[in-house]
Each structure stands twice: as structure tokens, then as C-alpha cells.
Amino acid sequence: MQPYEKFKTLGPGALTDEELLGIIIRVGTKDKDSVQVASKLLEDFPEHNLLGLFQTSWQDLMKHPGIGEVKAIRLKCIAEMAMRMSRSHAAKKLNFNHPGTVADYYMESLRHEPSEKVILILLDQQLKLISDMVLSIGTINKSILSPREIFAHAL
């Protein structure tokens, strides 16, 4: 059964990672269909699963046969949407009363950053997230920021 038919008959939960990715990729190459292209892509990801979409640059995605610039950018946008949906859902339940909670919330999005970032986290009186924003992007091992910039954004 083809991925589209499988989706229509059984729903998205019945699809494998390769089939989900194949539907998004849409068309393959002259030698491989979209599911085979997706399978090879997943195979080459660091952890051999969909997390590789987030960990791989769009330029590196384009190195795979069947993945051009448009598909690579589309895949990176889907990864970004998934991360934002996950963070948005998690933020509603989070209480930043422990440093480990803060680390858990930001770890996945910051783990693969090539440079230091300073993020301002604004919380309410119950330690629930109001908003967050990147205040500074530095070098590989440091970021410079003045207290004035922090207070200007917080106030």
C-alpha cells in the first residue's frame, strides 16, 4: 500500500518515519521513489531517525540525491514547526522553579547552536513562562551583553 493510501485508510499514526518523510518529499529520483529517498536520508542522519531533520543543515540535506533546495528548506521548516509546537505545548505546563526545568526546556533547541546565545526568560509570579527572547548571539564560547539591554527588554 502506498503512503497516501495508507494515510487515508489507517491515518498518520500508521505510517513509518520513511513513509511520513516520503509524503513530504513527494517525488524521488529516476531510480528511487520518495520513500526510498526518505529511507536513505534517515539512514544518513546522526541518530538514524527524524531528529536528524533538526540536526542537519538544509545545505547538507541537499547533498542527498532527490533533495533539492526547495525540498531541503521545506524539510527544515517542518522541523522548526514541530519544535515550536512542542515548545508551545510544553510551556503551558512548565514551572521554572528549578534550573533543571529550564535546561530541559531549552536544551534541544540550543544543543546544536554554533555560538553562544543569551536568552531572556520572562516569568510570572508563579514561575510560568510569559515569553523568551534572544538578547545576544556571541562567539563559540562567549557572548557580551550589558545589564541595560536586559532591563530594557524586561521592562
Can you characterise this structure?
- By secondary structure, the protein is mostly helical.
- 53% of the residues lie in helices and 10% in strands.
- It contains 8 helices and 2 strands, in the order αααααααββα.
- The protein has a two-stranded antiparallel ribbon with strand order 1-2.
- α2 (17-25) packs across α3.
- The protein is elongated, with a radius of gyration of 20 Å.
- The chain starts with a helix and ends with a helix.
Structural class by helix and strand composition? mainly alpha
Morphology call: elongated
The total beta strand count reads: 2
Spans of at least 5 consecutive residues whose pLDDT stays below 50 are none
Largest sheet: 2 strands, antiparallel
- What is the overall number of helices? 8
The H/E string reads: HHHHHHHEEH
**Percentage of residues assigned to helices:** 40-55%
% residues in beta strands: 5-15%
- Give the overall average pLDDT: 87
Question: What's the alpha carbon Rg, rounded to whole Å?
Answer: 20 Å
Oligomeric state, counting identical vs distinct chains: single chain
Biggest sheet: strands side by side, in what order?
1-2
The N- and C-terminal alpha carbons lie at a distance of: 57 Å
